[in-house]
Specification:
The complex is a heterodimer of chains A (about 260) and B (about 70). Chain A is mainly α and about 260 residues long. Chain A contains nine helices and no strands. The radius of gyration of chain B is 26 Å and the shape is rod-shaped. The chains are: A mainly alpha (about 260), B mainly alpha (about 70).
Chain lengths: ~260, ~70
């Protein structure tokens, strides 16, 4: 068949970059991705909260890891998406990339907030304090401020495109914080434990604890995808409200 | 972390009862709020754009309808 050749797929992928295609496509896949996300998180939590054994040093308190680590990973991953789409928007003036950048910021801020709160709730029983001003915690807090700063800056402009361009510059400057967060536990003396999973040698975590963590981490990735698609859809509809395809969409809805 | 985690996984969770599960070995006051806040935040971050989209779509179709009517009259 004609429409299954590689070049046809490429054309199809390219078309996804246009707002109307993205709008329709995201509407189609959101329910499926949500279902997969829910299954992964439920399975991961069942494994993590119920099946996985107690930690020999930290007792049951370590079970916060199943949300703390995935949200901390996502807080950085989402920033990479924000910076990348900002760069694409800045260079090629691609509307969809700008919409994605604007949509990612509140989601990234949410993961950063979760990582900080769950870390604090884990730190209190283990370290005896809710908060310390050490490198890992401080750089993660700076990440939260970068997200919030981006959101504030973007909402200060009336013109969507100017806002995106200004935000993009901030997002790109903030990239310097990412390696600082990642290597902070190695560069400085810190209360925060070193990397357990993302080491090049064997991860120092039991397999029965690792599998649930990877499941919730995958679930968090899909959660991000759902949140992103849902908010880009709202953004697109808002930005394109005066276009012909939206008028057509609304008309079709009324007749149906 | 746990290199020395208990090997008898099956035995372990057979022994464990529900009450013990919710007590989280005395760490319930930390573990459950952490999960609660996470769940709430993750639900809100999806519910918010969906609600926004729904509302916008409703407003736009009302506008669209009104414009059509005024064009006709």
């Amino acid at each position: 068949m004609n429409n299954t050749t590689p070049s046809a797929w490429l054309v199809r992928f390219h078309r996804l970059g246009s707002p109307p295609s993205f709008y329709h496509f995201s509407g189609l896949i959101i329910p499926w991705v949500s279902a997969a996300c829910l299954i992964l998180i439920v399975a991961g939590l069942y494994g993590g909260l119920y099946l996985a054994p107690t930690d020999y040093q930290q007792g049951e308190s370590y079970r916060i890891i199943y949300i703390h680590v995935p949200s901390a990973w996502m807080s950085m991953f989402v920033y990479v998406v924000l910076a990348t789409s900002s760069a694409i928007g800045l260079i090629w003036r691609m509307k969809l990339a700008e919409a994605i950048a604007r949509a990612t910021a509140p989601i990234g801020a949410t993961y950063t907030f979760i990582a900080l709160i769950t870390g604090s709730l884990w730190g209190k029983p283990m370290w005896g304090t809710w908060w310390v001003w050490d490198a890992r915690l401080t750089s993660e807090l700076i990440l939260l401020f970068l997200y919030l700063g981006y959101i504030a800056l973007v909402s200060a402009f009336d013109d969507r495109r100017t806002a995106s361009r200004a935000g993009a510059v901030l997002a790109l400057v903030g990239v310097v914080n990412l390696p600082i967060i990642h290597f902070s536990v190695e560069w400085w003396n810190t209360l925060h434990q070193g990397p357990t999973i993302t080491k090049f040698d064997q991860p120092s975590i039991a397999i029965s604890m690792l599998i649930p963590l990877l499941l919730t981490a995958a679930g968090f990735k899909l959660h991000f995808l759902v949140a992103l698609l849902a908010s880009v859809r709202a953004e697109i509809l808002d930005g394109e409200r005066r276009t012909a395809w939206v008028a057509e969409l609304l008309a079709r809805k009324k007749h149906a | 972390m746990a290199r020395g985690a208990r090997p008898g996984l099956l035995n372990y969770w057979r022994e464990k009862n529900m009450l013990e599960f919710f007590q989280m070995g005395g760490y319930a006051a930390y573990v459950w709020p952490a999960y609660g806040i996470t769940a709430l935040s993750m639900i809100l971050v999806i519910a918010h754009p969906i609600r926004k989209h729904k509302k916008l779509r409703k407003t736009l179709s009302q506008l669209h309808l009104k414009r059509n009517q005024s064009e006709r009259s």
